[in-house]
Amino acid sequence: MIRTLLLSALVAGALSCGLPTNLPQLSRVVGGEEATPNSWPWQVSLQYSSNGQWRHTCGGSLVANNWVLTAAHCISSSRTYRVLLGRHSLSTEEPGSLAVKVSKAVIHEDWNASKLSNGNDIALLKLASSVSLTDQIQLACLPPAGTILANNYPCYVTGWGRLQTNGALPDVLQQGLLLVVDYATCSSPSWWGSSVKTNMVCAGGDGVISSCNGDSGGPLNCQAADGRWQVHGVVSFGSLGCNYYHKPSVFTRVSNYIDWIQKVIANN
Ligand SMILES: *[C@@H]1O[C@H](CO)[C@@H](O)[C@H](O)[C@H]1NC(C)=O
Predict the structure, then answer these.
(1) 263 lines ligand 1 (CB under 6 A)
(2) Which of 13, 25, 44, 61 is spaced 20 to 30 A from 142 at the CA atom?
(3) Is residue 232 among the annotated active site residues?
(4) Where are its TM segments located (predicted)?
(5) Is 197 exposed, middle or buried (0-12, 13-18, 19+ CB in 10 A)?
């Protein structure tokens, strides 16, 4: 009986991820574009408190009702964080959006801020309360452990990051098409060389399609054959400048951390 319940809970969980009510518009606009509102409903804005105000600092993805996936380098132990969910415009108090405090941050044990090129730039944030899923707030799917995307697989990076090097921060959520660059190519000397490891995913870097928008901690969203969106990457580095030839954005490869994610959620 318990087994059946557990099984149906898992199946229900799997069914309720990665399928936005408001479908993203999948165009091939160079340089990024405004997303259709609430079409990436697992995207969150991670914010910290500064002089009584909340400031956007990173993106993140809702992966369980009370857990957000982000980058380790987004988290500073001295700060107080919250996440905004269900938002399109950061400056507008949109109906149906939620602000929830972060009660605990679990940073990967092998993360070392002075060794970014070792990877493990991944963290899970526990929310002070579980959120209810709505058309505006939904869970991302995670890829099966070990999944490696083929070279040129199309994915979308999303976030409130800059659109151009040193450009203004956009107020509404942006999306940008990025093509996956496989490890053999990305780690070759004229690309990222040894700064890229097998625990990372590269995408972009053809010098034409922007690898600039999106921001740290946010998702690399890739659609699986069944139509569901899976978060294959967490924006880690290389995305602050835009459109550098052979310098794609580098993401933490989520499929390498499925066991870690499941353990952290089960043990906290
Ligand atoms: C992180 O890397 C630096 C530089 O190699 C090293 O000195 C330091 O001990 C490392 N920190 C941890 C916690 O492993």
Answers:
(1) no
(2) 25
(3) no
(4) none
(5) middle
Locate the ligand 1 atom nearest the alpha carbon of residue 115 and give its number.
2
Task: Determine whether the shortest distance from the Cβ of 114 to ligand 1 is under 6 A.
Answer: yes
pTM over 0.90: yes
State the CB neighbour count (10 A cutoff) for residue 145: 13
Which pair of structure tokens corresponds to residue 207?
């010098």
Whether 112 lines ligand 1, by a CB cut-off of 6 Å, is yes
Ligand 1 atom nearest the C-alpha of 112 is 1
* pLDDT tens profile 45-82: 999 999 999 999 999 999 999 999 999 999 999 999 99
| Inter-residue contact 153 to 222 (CB < 8 Å) | yes
Task: Summarize pLDDT for 228-261 with one digit per residue, the tens.
Answer: 999 999 999 875 556 677 888 899 999 999 999 9
For the question of residue 108 being annotated catalytic, the response is no
Sequence-ordered list of residues with C-beta below 8 angstroms from that of 115, at least 6 positions apart, any chain: none
Specify which residues 60 forms β-bridges with. Answer: 44
